[in-house]
């Protein structure tokens, strides 16, 4: 395939597989992180690395971004298309194929990584912050509908 940097490969391919986790606490609140790159809230998650399963990527990203260990992941949904368009701060433009899991099984103490996120907070699904990362809006909308019917 030649000598492509990650950014060249992303621009060449255009689609980037990612995995994230909706973490729900005992009060049916969802954990969101305030991202440093766009100053908006999103679920923990990120791009998969070569050879990783989606579950491994989801667990790794959650741990890196929140210091939490998640267990018993259930597939929530897969998101793709225009709603998953993202432009990185360096100008790289991608369309995520987002594999999203949900769990209420987690352990550890919430700790902000300070790199990708600057705040972590559990929110009531009916009282989410206004500034949501655009590609997370359909995820959180689906979550709101699902929590009404108990996931």
UniProtKB/TrEMBL annotation:
Its cofactor is Mg(2+). Keywords: Hydrolase. Residues 14-145 form the Nudix hydrolase domain. It comes from the Bacteria. GO terms for molecular function: hydrolase activity. The keyword Hydrolase applies. The keyword Acyltransferase does not apply. It holds the Pfam family NUDIX. Belongs to the Nudix hydrolase family. This is ADP-ribose pyrophosphatase.
